[in-house]
Amino acid sequence: MLFVLNTAILLASSWTMIRAKRCYLSDNTIGYQQNLRYTIWLSLLFTGMQAVAWWWLFQNNINLGTSTTTGFLYVISFVHLAHVLAGLPFLFKFYRAAKKHMVDPVTVLVYFSDPEKRLSLRLLTLYWHFLDGLWIYLVLFFALNQVI
After folding, report:
1. pLDDT over 70 percentage in the chain
2. The CATH number fitting domain 2-144, selected from 3.90.1150.10, 3.40.50.2000, 1.20.120.80, 3.40.50.620
3. Is 66 helix (H, G, I), strand (E, B) or coil?
């Protein structure tokens, strides 16, 4: 059940990432910053909930060595978490840059019209959606195989 809750958390982070990108494209400074912040918080929540899910598995004697399938569950969910954590510094970087450079109308215009920032945000958004899609696939795969 915790893995399903984590799926909802990741879907929410994907939604806030979409909203951040839309705010960026529509020059909505406050919305852009808010949605980046929400995505960061949801990612941190996912990280904490993933630790709770592993703790629950350990408490119920579902360990790495229980079966090959549970071993895969731990390894794959850990690798996924590592990729979420790898994306967090980039989210922080975007958020920090937005707070630092979006202080007056001129700097906001320069920030929003920078093609490099636009491409970087697009790539980060694609990365985030790929992680979410992969997680959904993994949860469905393990649920169908009755591991979680």
Report:
1. 99
2. 1.20.120.80
3. coil
